[in-house]
Write a structure and sequence with these properties.
Blueprint: E1 21-25, E2 29-36, H1 49-57, E3 60-65, H2 67-80, H3 95-106, H4 118-132, H5 141-151, E4 156-160, H6 162-170, H7 174-186, H8 191-204, H9 207-219, H10 222-243, E5 248-255, H11 265-271, E6 276-278
Parallel strand pairs: 2-5, 3-4, 3-5
Antiparallel strand pairs: 1-2, 1-6
Helix pairs in contact: 2-6, 3-7, 4-7, 10-11
Length: about 280
C-alpha cells in the first residue's frame, strides 16, 4: 500500500479497464465498493460500464484519503520518514538485494535512503517502479473520481488521515520493516513486469489473479499483513455497517487489495450476515 506520488493536449484513447466492483445495500442505502489502482497508464478508460452508473447514482464519494489528506501526504512522509541517525544501505542490505537496490537507484535520482527508515526507502522504490512502468497518479482512479464528484458538486471524503496511514508503516517493528525492504530490493529486477501484470489483472476484473498476487506477497510478512490489510479492512467493514444506517448511495473507492481475499472488506461483511454481490 505504498502512497504512489497531464500534460495538456489531446491524447489517443488509452487501454480499456473494467475493474471489479461490489454492492452492499439495505432498504434505503446502497454502498458500491470499487477496487482501485492509485496509478495507471495514461488515458486508461476505467469509468464506463457499471462504474459509470455508480458514479452517477452516488450522493458522495469516500476514498482511503480525502483530497486534503492526499495533498498533505508528502509533508507527512517528510516528517515521518527520516531516521534519527543515518544508516548506510550496505548495513541493511547485502548480496543480491543490495545489487538490485543499487540498480534501481541508478535508474534515476538517488533515493537518499541512508537518511530514511526502511519502510520509507521501500516507498521510494515503489514510486520509482511505478514511473518505470509508466503508471501515473494523475491517471489513477482516485484522481479521476475526485474530479468527477467535485464537478458534480458532490462531497468527497476519506476513511483515514495521511498521518494514520503512514504510521501503519512507521510503527512496524524494525525486523518487519527490514524484511519488507529486503523483499522489495530482491524483487526489484522484475518489479515493473509484476506491476504491469497486477494492473492487467485489475483491468480485467480478475479477482482470482489479484487475490493470488496481492495475498501471496503479503502473506510472507504476517505482521505487515495484519497492520496494512486485515486491521484496516476490519475498520472499514465496520464503517460500511454503520453507514448503512443512513439513507443514500455511496461510492467507496479503495485499493483493490482490500476487496479481494478471505479477509477482504466484502468477506468480512458477509461474515456479519450482509449480502454482498459483485456488480462488475
Amino acid at each position: 500500500m505504498p502512497l504512489l506520488l497531464a500534460a495538456c493536449g489531446t491524447t489517443a484513447p488509452g487501454p480499456e479497464a473494467r475493474p471489479a466492483m461490489w454492492l452492499v445495500e439495505d432498504d434505503d442505502t446502497r454502498i458500491y465498493m470499487l477496487g482501485t489502482m492509485h496509478a495507471l497508464p495514461r488515458g486508461t478508460d476505467w469509468d464506463a460500464g457499471k462504474v459509470a452508473g455508480a458514479i452517477d447514482a452516488a450522493d458522495e464519494l469516500v476514498m482511503e484519503l480525502s483530497p486534503a489528506e492526499l495533498a498533505a501526504a508528502g509533508d507527512v512522509f517528510q516528517k515521518l520518514a527520516p531516521r534519527t541517525a543515518p544508516l548506510a544501505i550496505e548495513a541493511r542490505l547485502s548480496g543480491q538485494a543490495l545489487a538490485r537496490y543499487r540498480a534501481l537507484e541508478a535508474s534515476g535520482n538517488a533515493f537518499g535512503g541512508e537518511t530514511f527508515d526502511d519502510w520509507a526507502v521501500m516507498v521510494l522504490m515503489g514510486q520509482r517502479v511505478a514511473q518505470q512502468a509508466e503508471l501515473s497518479p494523475a491517471d489513477g482512479v482516485e484522481t479521476g473520481l475526485t474530479a468527477q464528484f467535485k464537478a458534480a458538486g458532490k462531497p468527497v471524503g476519506g476513511l483515514e488521515t495521511a498521518q494514520a496511514q503512514l504510521m501503519l508503516f512507521e510503527t512496524l517493528d524494525a525486523a518487519t520493516q527490514r524484511i519488507l525492504l529486503t523483499r522489495a530490493a530482491e524483487r526489484s529486477d522484475n518489479a515493473v513486469a509484476e506491476v504491469r501484470a497486477l494492473t492487467a489483472a485489475w483491468s480485467r476484473g480478475d479477482v482470482a489473479a489479484l487475490d493470488k498476487v496481492i495475498n501471496e506477497d503479503v502473506d510472507a510478512v504476517p505482521a505487515a499483513r495484519k497492520a496494512i490489510l486485515t486491521d484496516r479492512n476490519r475498520r472499514w467493514s465496520a464503517w460500511v455497517q454503520k453507514r448503512l444506517e443512513q439513507p443514500g448511495t455511496v461510492l467507496m473507492a479503495v485499493g483493490a487489495g482490500h476487496l479481494v481475499g478471505s479477509d477482504s472488506v466484502p468477506a468480512m461483511l458477509e461474515a456479519e450476515g450482509l449480502k454482498v454481490r459483485r456488480v462488475q
